[in-house]
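RECORD TYPE: inverse folding
INPUT: structure tokens
STRUCTURE:
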């Protein structure tokens, strides 16, 4: 008999955790597991990419506004979560062998309301909550969030440092394990080969949701530094988000609109990443930066600010340049590679070797091991 697995995530937008979940579901052994996926509402670029074997369940089928109102009601009134419980009872089965909330925040909250329906309850943490406690906006207080984690049987972290830092925020006696995100390097390289991109000058690329935590505004100031120093460098940002308008205005205010391109969301960004001279991450916080790992697998040298994910991915700076978070430090880190072609090549070679630790088969064995 197949094991019944239920995954929970809020939406299927183009975020890193959503992509990781999609990669995981594509590689599940459906001869051994029947997998269901509970999503808050039918919205997101990944909705049509879910494998056909997965039973897709929407908490609110028609208008996701109701879903958001229910979450806001919980945040305001705490324990009065009957709006969400009512919908959950209508949508899901009586019991599952394993229930997995695949993201902190609202997915964890939903999970806590149906934990009695799981023989085993597992939650995934993708962020370093000690440096970026974004999930505080979901819960009425820290105690309510802590109670959700304490009710789990296992907590999975995507980096060891994020796992260690978690104890600084939540003191819970729940078994923990670190499982890296899947990075299918062979598939990424195949996608990268689908288009031949040629840049007219030295090109620096970054990718992610255009929000505060990615700190892309710092890259705009960095580009100004290079321009003032007489360098001919083009910067490009792949992704979309609520901060795009402000970032474009900042570019115009600094006169950098011709040195920085906004490429938007791309289904296949890898040809653009592969053809770049450097990949840069300016994030304030990362549990595990999927795009840094992907750039490494493509042999692109990386410059990244100190975050839990970047430190671990770059092996403490052995496989790429780590910098502090201020503009001057990021500028100097990038300049170090811009000025030294041999150093770029050495980091590129080390990055490719390092990316082998994210191999698909290895990660899937660890995931299946959770259910034993």
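DESIGNED SEQUENCE:
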């Amino acid at each position: 008999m197949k094991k019944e697995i239920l995954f929970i995530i809020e939406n299927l937008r183009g975020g890193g955790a959503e992509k990781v979940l999609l990669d995981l579901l594509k590689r599940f052994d459906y001869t051994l597991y029947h997998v269901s996926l509970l999503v808050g509402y039918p919205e997101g670029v990944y909705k049509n990419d879910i494998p056909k074997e997965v039973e897709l369940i929407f908490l609110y089928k028609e208008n996701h506004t109701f879903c958001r109102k229910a979450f806001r009601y919980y945040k305001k009134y705490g324990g009065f979560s009957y709006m969400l419980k009512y919908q959950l009872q209508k949508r899901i089965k009586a019991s599952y062998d394993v229930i997995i909330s695949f993201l902190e925040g609202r997915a964890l909250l939903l999970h806590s309301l149906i934990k009695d329906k799981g023989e085993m309850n597992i939650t995934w943490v993708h962020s370093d909550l000690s440096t970026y406690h974004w999930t505080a906006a979901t819960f009425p207080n820290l105690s309510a969030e802590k109670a959700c984690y304490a009710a789990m049987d296992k907590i999975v972290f995507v980096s060891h440092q994020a796992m260690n830092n978690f104890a600084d925020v939540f003191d819970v006696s729940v078994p923990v394990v670190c499982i890296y995100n899947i990075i299918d390097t062979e598939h990424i390289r195949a996608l990268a080969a689908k288009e031949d991109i040629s840049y007219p000058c030295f090109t620096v690329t970054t990718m992610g949701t255009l929000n505060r935590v990615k700190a892309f505004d710092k890259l705009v100031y960095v580009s100004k530094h290079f321009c003032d120093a007489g360098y001919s460098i083009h910067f490009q940002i792949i992704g979309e988000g609520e901060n795009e308008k402000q970032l474009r205005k900042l570019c115009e205010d600094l006169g950098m609109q011709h040195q920085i391109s906004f490429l938007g969301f791309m289904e296949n960004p890898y040809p653009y990443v592969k053809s770049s001279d450097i990949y840069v991450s300016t994030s304030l916080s990362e549990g595990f930066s999927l795009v840094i790992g992907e750039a490494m697998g493509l042999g692109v040298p990386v410059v990244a600010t100190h975050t839990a994910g970047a430190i671990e991915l770059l092996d403490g700076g052995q496989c790429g340049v780590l910098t502090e978070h201020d503009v001057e430090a990021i500028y100097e880190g990038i300049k170090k590679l811009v000025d030294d072609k041999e150093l770029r090549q050495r980091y590129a070679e080390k990055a490719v070797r390092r990316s082998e630790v994210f191999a698909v088969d290895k990660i899937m064995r660890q995931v299946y091991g959770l259910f034993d």
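NOTES: The first strand starts at residue 3 and ends at 9.
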